[in-house]
Fold:
Amino acid sequence: MPLGERPGDKSESRYCGVETEFSDDMPNVLAFNLTHGSFDFVVATLMDPAYRPSLMQKNGGSSVLPFAGSDLVLSPSQWSSHVVGKISSWIDLDSEDEILRSDSEITLKQELAWASHLSLQACLLPPPKGKSCANYARCVNQILQGLQSMQLWLRIPLVKTDNDTVSVNSDNLDDSWEIWNSFRLLCEHHSQLSVVLDVLSSLPSANSLGRWFGESVRAAIFSTDCFLTNSRGYPCLSKRHQELVPGFFNHSIQIVLSGQSVHSLTKINSDFAANNNDNNIVGVQKHPLRPYLEYVGFLYQRMDPLPEQERFELGYRDFLQSPLQPLMDNLEAQTYETFEKDTTKYIQYQRAISKALQDRVPEEKSSAITTVLMVVGAGRGPLVRASLQAAEETGRRLKVYAVEKNPNAVVTLHSLVKLEGWEDIVSIISSDMRHWDAPEKADILVSELLGSFGDNELSPECLDGAQKFLKEDGISIPSSYTSFIHPVTASKLYNDVKSHKDVAHFETAYVVKLHNIARLAPPQSVFTFTHPNRSTDKNNSRYMKLKFEIPGDTGSAMVHGFAGYFDSTLYKEVHLGIEPSTSTPNMFSWFPIFFPLRTPICLRPGSSLEVHFWRCCSPTKVWYEWGVASPSCSPIHNSNGRSYWVGL
Ligand SMILES: C[S@@+](CC[C@H](N)C(=O)[O-])C[C@H]1O[C@@H](n2cnc3c(N)ncnc32)[C@H](O)[C@@H]1O
Structure:
């Protein structure tokens, strides 16, 4: 039984497992923990802990390996849905002791072969014993090469001691993230290798915890030692631990409970019997960890339900999409329909247009002057509608030209004008705005040609062409837009890009609803474009060098790429954008953009990251190039736009 569906959150259930001792009676382990204890799965030791291959040989013992029962004791679906295999915790593949090392390697291989035979979904690997884990990683890496679909979860204690005196490049050996990082680097970021965090009673700083949300963390093990006791004698967590649990749930990290009950069950059991007025319950004791599970369930239930839009977007989380090319391609009806649902965007445009109309025509002349407004890139008409509503709201007279180069959207525009009775006010022009020979000049030019990175759908090039029919003192809405980036840990995105096994995918920017990422520094602005552009030099190429300072208390972190955003000033103080610190609430037209790095770069606490971004233009295309220069150099990505470009 999952921890339950919260009201309004039917799409996402959360599960809670329990770590169990070795038992060769697996049906009983499942009955006790799942049926009686209400856990969803067990993390069960697969092999008798006393087993050592060298002892078996010496004693000439049986060749039957001492696993926890045969495969037949549970059904295949019970094994795969309810059991995570736990690899013997004594193994130490980096021990100085050759016999122990060899025993460990043999046992690891035997246990993982058995787990594959049982079709388990995942196996929990014990934490590396010391700071050096090369031989352990080598052996796991060998196994990963031939593994079908099973996941390997490396157990890592959640430890980072604060050390204010850490200097750049010093080995901060008190940070367990370093062990994980070494291990996964040795295993080349294998996508079937992930982390399980062992949560301890004291927690690292919030900054340092945040790093883990960009890593592939599958579960968090809470030992009963982490729990405090509330005034009624029941287990509860410290405030910081309490805050961590919803963070785990939000990032699809399952909770596993472990250890012996350290809370007196006498009272809890008598409460249990008193609350269950059922004769059959007499003599039935609660599962010793049930109060802990109920507490975790309580923390889950009290989380705020996801807003409707977030629920709708669950399927898009961390899913890479190619950015639209609305200039080169013609958008489909479905895409326009999605845009048109974003009422927030049109409300912002309407506010901007209203202000511009009021500034353009004083109240006393409102019935005498007709403002010429051109919507360039009108799509199926929502900005035409917003313009007409702004005119009505402000009492200004309007003449509208709706310019659109997509012939299919022009069909919709014609039927809309007829349907709404706009024939006298709105003229439809089926043309590319860059080549239209306008019969008169506009007072206001309204467009929405913005991509997730602002200029990436070639708004600058289109508006440079269109501004020839804007009056000298005319207004462009938007009046400017700026792109932003910051470095992120995003191991899922990195692995998804890597799965294509080519350079081209690493040199492509993706639109993605970022979720399981860690933001390593605040965003900084990259390129700004202002309209109308009255300068004589219409060069839209840009170059920017940025330096990000990594906080000293975070610990080291991995950069897998850069998250990109935009903010646009529509008119005066009316803006619209997705840069996290100023983003327009309840607007969903744009997900962020992601620029990957071919090789992730490790950042030390207190160090700085120097990155270079270029916007390059040729007569036929526009593209970005990017590269890191410090702390180490990456190749320049997307040289000459060889992998990713936007067509003019
Ligand atoms: C992002 S959509 C916005 C559509 C509409 N304004 C809205 O808000 O739903 C951009 C529109 O501009 C059109 N467009 C892009 N470049 C254009 C150009 N050079 N000339 C005319 N239309 C263009 C596209 O076909 C598309 O319909």
Observations:
- Confidence is low (pLDDT under 50) at residues 7-11, 165-172, 278-283.
- The first helix runs from residue 26 to 36.
- Residues 16-160+175-302 form a domain with the TIM Barrel fold (CATH 3.20.20.150).
- The pocket of S-adenosylmethionine is lined by residues 326-327, 331, 336, 339-340, 376-379, 382-383, 403-406, 409, 432-434, 448-449, 462 (CB under 6 Å).
